Design the sequence.
């Protein structure tokens, strides 16, 4: 029988996160970051202020986008004549099949351009336990302020929370990721999407 495609979640955010995660991290998880699988073709679902309906801004809930269907890509590490540089080929080979997190607002830009304008637009946590640090230390501090594509209202909301010292539950980050089907890979080299598999 032909296996039924399984929708891949495109957002870390889940209803009820506000009770466990501080407001700044909620904005990052809900409004800026997008889940993707490296090497998997996906439709460009980038959004702008006019077509999104975010909480407090405008942003439609696309946490289970039908364009994100898990597939097998046996050629993830093969050479790609369409690649613009060896760096891109090596990066895609290294992270092929792994779950990554990326800025939904600048993902349409070529990789080299993103590296110059705002580095770390894509991050690949090495484990579920490392998602918190990858987002709060690396992505938030090195990408968000430099990315000109993130809407001003979102950046203003983040700046308004700079003095907020509330702390969320780090363990909840792991628990909520498991609930949406994310798992540590068996080889210990990243995160994979395995719905229905016990952690």
Sequence:
């Amino acid at each position: 029988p032909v296996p039924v495609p399984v929708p891949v979640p495109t957002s870390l955010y889940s209803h009820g996160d506000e009770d466990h995660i501080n407001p700044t991290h909620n904005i990052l998880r809900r409004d800026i970051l997008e889940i993707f699988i490296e090497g998997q073709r996906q439709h460009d679902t980038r959004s702008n202020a006019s077509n999104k309906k975010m909480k407090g801004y405008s942003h439609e809930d696309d946490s289970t986008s039908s364009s994100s269907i898990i597939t097998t890509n046996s050629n993830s590490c093969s050479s790609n004549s369409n690649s613009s540089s060896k760096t891109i080929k090596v990066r895609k080979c290294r992270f092929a099949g792994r779950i990554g997190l990326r800025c939904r607002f600048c993902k349409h830009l070529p990789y080299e351009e993103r590296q110059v304008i705002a580095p770390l637009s894509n991050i690949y946590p090495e484990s579920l336990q490392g998602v918190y640090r990858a987002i709060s230390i690396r992505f938030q501090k090195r990408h968000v302020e430099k990315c000109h594509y993130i809407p001003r209202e979102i950046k203003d909301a983040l700046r308004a929370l700079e003095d907020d010292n509330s702390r969320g539950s780090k363990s909840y980050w792991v628990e909520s990721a498991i609930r949406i089907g994310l798992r540590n890979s068996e080889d210990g080299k990243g995160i994979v999407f395995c719905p229905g598999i016990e952690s």
Notes: The longest helix spans residues 131-144. The two ends are 26 Å apart (CA to CA). The longest strand covers residues 33-37. Residues 48 and 125 are 26 Å apart (CA to CA).
